[in-house]
Amino acid sequence: MDVKAHDAAGQRCAPLRSRWSIVLLPALAGTGLLLGGCGTDTDAPPAEPPEAIQEAEADFELIPSPDVAPERPDARLGLTSPDDGERYQEGETVEVRFNLSGYTLDEATPGGEERGIARAPGQHIHLILNNDRYQALYDADEPVVFDDLPPGTHHFRAFPGTDWHESVKTPGAFATRTIHVGDGEAAPRVDPDGPLLTYSRPVGEYAGADADSILVDFYLTGARLAEDGYRVRLTVNGMGEAMITEWRPYLLLGLPPGEHTVRLELLDPQGQVVPGEFNQAERTITVTEG
Hints:
mainly beta, five-stranded mixed sheet
């Protein structure tokens, strides 16, 4: 694979104790966050906090990010190549080409230095092959070349990101393509209009100050999150969980050094994982002392 890319910086998570409970924190009411196995430290806690919060034990917190990326209503991203449904022979080169407008790559996002979270050299495109970790691309005019794709069906998804890796959630800023390699039977294409979760952050390794606040972010199409509707479930190390009911960035706090598995799943209103190979994804991240 020949690709002009930059890996995203990392983040961290902590093992949860076996004792946890699910609560809606009053301080976060209306923010779209139901926490399971998550505590919250505040300077001014509610006068009568629910007993469940007082009794809950956990080693991480998930909170809505206090700052979100500036709105980019004109941002548009498309893929001019490959064609959706295109078939390639084994060993044939596949070029992914972009059409980006209303968004400038490889420059600092205003206010990024104030976020206190891991940052990249500049604004970039997140390109995801199948359900793998994304590649950060800084030049929309430079094609991404794949020359070793195995036989089968492959999916590309892409969207712009800030220099602190938050996805640009403007309608029209998400692009997807499905291709087939070899002569085998083609799997279904990705339906961009159906419920679709795209895992973005966290990924990689986090050290020092970058590990204090770890961005949790994803792209969502074809579904609207609500407490009584679709939700995204965050699970850390297979134990404690947070139920997300609003599409926005979050921060993962209080994770100790070590490797941690972070999993995101899109749930339907009945609490079942929405069918589709991309509606659940996980990454192993590493936290180190810096």
